[in-house]
Design goal:
Keywords: Amino-acid transport, ATP-binding, Nucleotide-binding, Transport. InterPro entries: AAA+_ATPase (IPR003593), ABC_transporter-like_ATP-bd (IPR003439), ABC_transporter-like_CS (IPR017871), BCAA_Transport_ATP-bd_LivF (IPR052156), P-loop_NTPase (IPR027417). Residues 2-233 form the ABC transporter domain. The strands form 2 sheets. Strands 6-7-8-3-9-10 form a 6-stranded mixed beta sheet, with helices on both faces. The relative contact order is 0.18. By secondary structure, it is α/β, with parallel strands linked by helices. The chain has helices spanning 40-47, 70-76, 93-99, 106-119, 121-125, 136-148, 166-181, 193-199, 217-221, 224-230; strands at 2-11, 14-24, 29-33, 55-60, 63-64, 78-81, 154-158, 185-189, 202-207, 210-215. It is globular. The chain has 2 domains: 2-77 and 152-229, P-loop containing nucleotide triphosphate hydrolases (Rossmann fold); 87-145, no CATH class. Bound molecules: adenosine-5'-triphosphate (ATP).
Length: 233
């Protein structure tokens, strides 16, 4: 589905990612964990075309994706939910969701909308409410729902649990599992390494823009180096 091969990227001539290799297969949740400033967000931004790679290649569904504009990547099925959510505050839940469907034809919008409401029933209840009046957890659900409206093949989530209570974090991560089970691959960046690793089919640990460890999520959660560095154990 997605392959990064020797990816290098950074800002204003400062290199942040160093020859990063990473893969997401169909049907997988892949987690990207690591400390502050390890380059997780930069990796997502490079994949979604916001940051231009300086070297290496990105392939998505068999086609080169580096140097491709973000809007075109969305049309190809690669959609990112940014950490800051970027909702349209004064617009209603319903309007925000429909904005996410700009790549879709009219007849698929209604069925996708009901899939999103099925995943997050609270959004159906609040559909006429302005996005800015939702709680933090509901806003995160709306941001994910809006991304799903584009019918992605691969959904990239940047720290979806930011600012959420442990209970809501579980609710959101549980929805991520359902999304995977419905056939959407997920690349998940999480500060909360313990929960991300338990959820992920596979995971990569980033340090200073390089991958230092990778493997099945639950296996990494048991790894002594990971436990010491990221799980505080
Ligand atoms: P966090 O969990 O703190 O968000 P991260 O692993 O997502 O960390 P990145 O946000 O990718 O890390 O940041 C990696 C490095 O790139 C950091 O040193 C950061 O200061 C730098 N950086 C991020 N965004 C920019 C920017 N727009 N301009 C310059 N440097 C940046």
């Amino acid at each position: 589905m997605l392959v990064l091969d020797g990816l290098c990227a950074g800002y204003h001539g400062l290199q942040i990612l160093h020859e990063l290799d990473l893969r997401v297969d169909a049907g997988e949740i892949v987690a990207l964990v690591g400390g502050n400033g390890a380059g997780k967000t930069t990796t997502l931004r490079a994949i979604s075309g916001v940051v231009k790679p300086s070297a290496g290649a990105i392939t998505f569904r068999g086609q080169r994706a580096d140097g491709v504009r973000t809007a075109e990547l969305v049309r190809r099925g690669l959609v990112q939910v940014p950490e800051e959510r970027a909702l349209f505050g004064p617009l209603t839940v319903d309007e925000n969701l429909r904005m996410g469907a700009w790549t879709q034809k009219g007849d698929t919008v209604a069925s996708t909308l009901s899939e999103v409401f099925d995943l997050f029933p609270i959004l159906a209840e609040r559909r006429r409410q302005a996005a800015e009046t939702l709680s933090g957890g509901q806003q995160q659900m709306l941001a994910i729902g809006r991304a799903l409206m584009a019918r992605p093949a691969l959904l990239m989530l940047d720290e979806p649990s930011t600012g959420l209570s442990p209970k809501l974090t579980w609710a959101v991560l549980d929805a991520v599992k359902t999304i995977r089970d419905r056939g959407v691959a997920v690349l998940l960046v999480e500060q909360n390494a313990a929960q991300a690793l338990r959820l992920a089919d596979r995971a990569y640990v980033l340090e200073s823009g390089s991958c230092v460890l990778s493997g099945p999520g639950p296996e990494l959660a048991e790894d002594d180096r990971v436990r010491a560095a990221y799980l505080g154990l």
